[in-house]
Write a structure and sequence with these properties.
Length: 198
């Protein structure tokens, strides 16, 4: 065997031992709280990617979206007919609204659905898409969200998405990823696209 080959083999063996040790230590099994935050693209799509995985293993999932998109929602079109419970904030908040009272009402209405999901032991995965803004704008009480998250069924995983996630949510979370923009097509004047951006 060449020296290079032997060195490579040794390195891989050490890596394998380190990984095996970490795997043998990770033996707790429970649902986790995942936060996808930051300014880069991919927070919502990563959440739906995880839901696709869960559904592929016959698990049950639910989605609550706290910002009404301006366009038809591709994920909802696909997933609702497959039996995924899906709620989108009915009226009020988009990036453009300015009426705090009606936005708060719309938020509270959809939050009721979210709370039911967080208490439903039939659900393995719950996505709370763009919920971070509800805390930032004061439409939803932080304590109430934290309590619902802490009291959820033990096996249930929750994914929270949105920019500028409150530190108390990050502290409670098990897995937190910050999407960092390196480039975004929009900045080069390319329009948001159906099937790619919504
Ligand atoms: P996606 O839904 O594509 O995963 P996201 O959830 O990370 O994006 P949001 O802030 O929720 O990001 O994005 C809302 C919309 O803005 C989406 O259509 C998304 O593609 C687009 N977008 C995301 N990041 C950026 C960015 N850095 N600049 C411009 N537009 C963005
Ligand atoms: Mg998003």
């Amino acid at each position: 065997m060449t020296d290079k080959n032997e060195m490579h083999q040794k390195r891989q063996q050490r890596l394998k031992e380190a990984v095996d040790e970490r795997i043998s230590k990770a033996n707790e099994q429970r649902g986790i709280l995942i936060v996808n935050t930051g300014n880069g693209k991919g927070k919502t799509t990563a959440a739906f990617g995880t839901l696709t995985r869960a559904l592929g293993h016959n698990k049950k999932g639910g989605v609550v979206q706290f910002i009404k998109g301006l366009w038809e929602n591709g994920e909802k079109n696909l997933l609702e007919p497959l039996g995924v419970e899906f709620h989108v904030m009915a009226t009020g908040f988009t990036w453009e609204t300015q009426d705090k009272a009606s936005d708060t009402l719309a938020c509270q209405e959809v939050w009721r659905k979210a709370k039911q999901m967080l208490a439903n032991s039939q659900l393995d995965l719950v996505i709370l898409d763009e919920i971070t803004y509800m805390i930032t704008y004061g439409y939803l009480d932080l304590e109430e969200l934290l309590i619902a998250l802490k009291n959820r069924p033990n096996h249930q995983t929750v994914i929270i998405t949105g920019r500028a996630c409150h530190r108390d949510i990050i502290e409670l979370a098990d897995t937190v990823t910050e999407m960092r923009p390196i480039k975004h097509a929009f900045d080069a004047g390319i329009k948001a696209q159906k099937g790619i951006d919504w």
